[in-house]
Amino acid sequence: MSDATKLLEDMNERSREVFRMIVESYLDSGEPVGSRTLTRTLNEKVSAATVRNVMQDLEYLGLLDSPHVSAGRVPTQMGLRMFVDGLLEVGEMEDADRTRIDSTLGNEHSDVSGMLDRIGSALSGVTQGASLVLTPKHESEIRHIEFVSLAHDRALVVLVFSDGQVENRLFTPPPGQTPSSMREAANFLNTLIEGRTIGAVRRDIQTQIAARRQEIDSLAREMVESGLAAWDSKDTDSARLIVRGRANLLGEADQAEELERIRTLFDDLERKRDIADFLELTEEGEGVRIFIGSENKLFSLSGSSLVVSPYMNADRKIIGAVGVIGPTRLNYGRIVPIVNYTAQLVGKLISDRS
What we know:
Belongs to the HrcA family. This protein has 14 helices and ten strands. The protein is α+β, with helices and mostly antiparallel strands. The protein has three domains: 3-86, Arc Repressor Mutant, subunit A; 95-136 and 239-353, Beta-Lactamase; 142-231, Enolase-like, domain 1 (2-Layer Sandwich), CATH 3.30.390.10. The strands form three sheets. It has a five-stranded antiparallel beta sheet, sandwiched between helices. Strands 4-5-6 form a three-stranded antiparallel beta sheet. It has a two-stranded antiparallel ribbon with strand order 1-2. A hairpin with a 4-residue loop joins strand 5 (154-161) and strand 6 (166-171). The protein is elongated, with a radius of gyration of 27 Å. The two termini are 40 Å apart. 33% of the residues are buried.
C-alpha cells in the first residue's frame, strides 16, 4: 500500500469529499479551487471557514498546494496519485471514440507499421493529447538475403523473412565491389542465417566472419560487414516509437516555462531516449498504468502524465505499448478506457496477422 493510499484511508468522509471535489474541478478546468466554491456544492452544509480548515490540513499532508497566497488549491503530484489510486471512477468508452479508432484500420491487408501509424494519429485525435505507439520488434526467421548493386557507391540489401515480409536497406558498399563479390557475400550469409532471427544471427556472425576469413576474399568480407551494418543498425529490428499530436500539448501551453518543458519532452522522444522503458513500465502485468510527472524519468522534466498499456501477441507475450501523454490534469477517467481498448485492439490485430 502506498503512503498516499494509506492517507486516503485515514481521512474522514468530509476530508475525502473536499479532496475529491478539488481534484475533479482542477482536472476539468485547470484552475485552483477556493473554499467558497466548495461550500456551494458540498453535500453537507458547512461554513467556508470549516472548508478552509480542511483544505489547510490537506495541504499540510502534501496533497494540495496553493499557487498564490490568496488563491484556491490545486492537487500536488502526490494528491493526483492518491486520487487516481483510490477515488478515480473510470467510465465506459464512448461509442463515438470507439468508432473513430476502429475507422482508422482501413485495409486489413495493409502493413502493420502503417496500421499502427494510423492508430496513433486516431488516438491523438480522440484524446486531444500526444499518442505513443511502440511497435513490435520483427522477430520472424530469415529465409534469404541478397545484395543488389545500384551504382558504384550504392547497393541494396534485401531481407526476405519466413512470414513473407521483405525489408530493403540502402548502404554504401566497399570500393571495388563486383557482382561476383556480392554473390559471394550473400552466399556466405545465407549459409548462416536461414531459419534464424536477426537477433540470433547478431550474436555470432562477426565471430563466424573472423573464423572463416580464409574462405572468402577481403572484398566479399567487406561486403558482408557493410551489408550487415545496414540491417544490423539499431533501428532495423528494434522497436519503433510513433509519436503523434505534438500540437495538442503545445496548444495548451500558456506559459513560457510550460512550453519549454513540453519542447524538452518531445526533444527526448525524438532522440528515442529511454524508449525501452515503455515496455519495462508495463511488464508488471496487464492493464493500463498511469505515471504522473516525475514517476517516469522520461517525463520528469516536462511535468506531464503518461497513461500506457501493453499489447500482446498470440502467445501472450508483451511486444509493444500504446499510450497517451498529456498535462497532469488529464481526464483520466475517459483516457484510461480509450488506451485500454486501443491496446487490446492492436494486440488482436497483430495476433490475427501472425
